[in-house]
Design a protein that fits this description.
Keywords: Membrane, Transmembrane, Transmembrane helix. There is one protein chain. The chain is 30% helix and 28% strand. It is an alpha+beta fold. It has an eight-stranded mixed beta sheet, sandwiched between helices. The longest helix is centred in the C-terminal third of the chain and has 26 residues. The N and C termini lie far apart (74 Å).
Length: 466
């Protein structure tokens, strides 16, 4: 049995606008996957640029001519460019939404021609390989991808799926354009981040990029162990439908008000501060430096009406990790001078970009972009959404103030207090509610001193006992 794909009828109208009698338009399919069903939320053609002007990061690839959005032949398709573009726009997607595959609009049925279908298969396989190489960005991306071919002459379409992790054969997919829109549940939460990540002796000589990758891995371990609470109910590995939560008395009160709108639910994320273990497992070691992650992260995800509680919890976790990974990847790519050779008690403040949101007008699913401190050019952001996701938006549709910019002086004060009370187990460094998400990188020579004192005391009592 093949996959069933649900898409709104407006997306069929979008495909018809891309047609040209002598050229092809290629784009990406965005949506949510569940069992043998896919729910498509958006289609966006890929902007192509001449090979001489192409750059590695699609964020900087802007077509100078509308004709660059088309190619003369599918055989001319650059599969690596398509894969790179898919990886770039994945940063802009919320958790639970993936690049499900690709579509092609042109004057023939590309999936009935063996040479053309092989080219499209190569592109889809390249997309999967590109996303699969970054698990924190792509999450548990579905292995079965879609290819949709729309004939501009006959106005007919063909859809097939390909299992990128198995045989790679094309299988028929039942693509359905429906007049009735899919209902979505929307989740929003604010995650407080206040974690100290020690940099051990063997890690201190690594580049800042590699050290930040260690931070991402450590956060992935914590987020994956987090407890997700939806509307006051803890979510475990439950296959219960989300509809069961909506039947709670709290949501019944607002049922009449939300009959015409998608549902909005509040989510709590409880991250374990320290892994649970036995006291004898605690060991002391020398730390050369530390990276402290402080601030607040805003997370927004959407799940289709047939989703389970477990799928919702996984989507929230994936959104948090995707946002952390996206910020740090963008940040280390912008660092021109690598910070090597930290000096004692040196404190370096890094401010990765904060998250801004744009809701799709048809279904309120939130997409993201990232804005660096001091960047206020809305036209650049609008152009980015237009170029990468083929969206016509206005400035008032952007939500830029959900994550605030931080006052660096406050962070340094908090860091000083934290160092003065390092050996107090009950001490907590708190971040005000309007702070954005940032990184402080500093050398903590105090760690080495404390370790030396502890070891000295232990040796003293050991010798006294003997």
């Amino acid at each position: 049995m093949g996959r069933t794909v649900y898409a709104e009828e407006r997306l069929l109208n979008y495909l018809e606008t891309l047609g040209k009698p002598d050229a092809y338009s290629v784009g990406l399919i965005f949506g949510q996957s569940s069992d043998q069903k896919d729910y498509v939320v958006h289609l966006a053609r890929i902007p192509f640029v001449p090979a001489a002007d192409a750059v590695e990061d699609s964020f900087h690839s802007h077509p100078t001519n509308p004709e660059d959005n088309y190619i003369k032949s599918i055989k001319d398709l650059d599969v690596f460019y398509v894969a790179d573009h898919a990886k770039t726009v994945t940063r802009m997607l919320p958790g639970g939404i993936w690049v499900l595959g690709m579509f092609v609009v042109g004057p023939e049925d590309c999936l009935t021609d063996n040479s053309l279908s092989q080219k499209l298969k190569s592109a889809v396989m390249a997309i999967h390989k590109s996303l699969d190489s970054n698990v924190h960005l792509s999450g548990n991306s579905p292995h079965e991808k879609l290819i949709l071919s729309f004939n501009t002459l006959t106005k007919k379409y063909i859809s097939k799926s390909i299992d990128t992790a198995a045989d790679g054969f094309l299988k028929p997919a039942d693509w359905r354009f429906a007049k009735k829109p899919t209902k979505w549940y929307h989740f929003e939460t604010i995650v407080d981040l206040n974690t100290l990540c020690p940099i051990f002796e063997e890690e201190n000589l690594l580049s800042l990029k590699k050290q930040l990758q260690i931070v991402i891995r450590k956060y992935a371990e914590m987020i994956n162990k987090a407890v997700i609470v939806i509307e006051g109910e803890a979510v475990t590995n439950s296959s219960n439908p989300l509809e069961s939560i909506m039947e709670d008395d709290k949501t019944k009160k607002n049922k009449q008000e939300e009959d015409e709108n998608d549902k909005l639910l509040q989510v709590g994320v409880y991250i374990p501060y320290w892994p649970v273990g036995k006291q004898e497992d605690i060991k002391s070691t020398i730390c050369e430096a530390s990276i402290k992650v402080m601030g607040q992260l805003v997370s927004r995800v959407s799940l289709h009406e047939k989703s389970t509680c477990e799928e919702a919890a996984n989507a929230v976790k994936q959104d948090i990790l995707r946002s952390i990974a996206s910020r740090l990847e963008l940040h280390w790519d912008t660092i021109i001078v690598e910070e090597n050779g930290f000096q004692e008690e040196n404190v370096t403040l890094h401010e990765p970009p904060r998250r801004i949101f744009l809701q799709l007008p048809q279904n309120r699913i939130s997409l993201s972009d990232y804005l660096y401190p001091g960047e206020v050019d809305e036209s650049m952001i609008i152009d980015l959404f237009k170029t990468l996701l083929d969206l016509e938006i206005s400035e008032n549709q952007l939500q830029k103030d959900l994550e605030k910019q931080i006052d660096p002086t406050d962070l340094y004060k908090q860091n000083k207090v934290s160092n003065e009370n390092w050996n107090a187990a009950e001490t907590e460094t708190k971040v005000e509610s309007d702070k954005s998400w940032n990184i402080i990188i500093y050398v903590s020579a105090l760690l080495t001193v404390i370790c030396a004192i502890i070891l000295g005391i232990l040796l003293y009592f050991f010798q006294k006992k003997n």
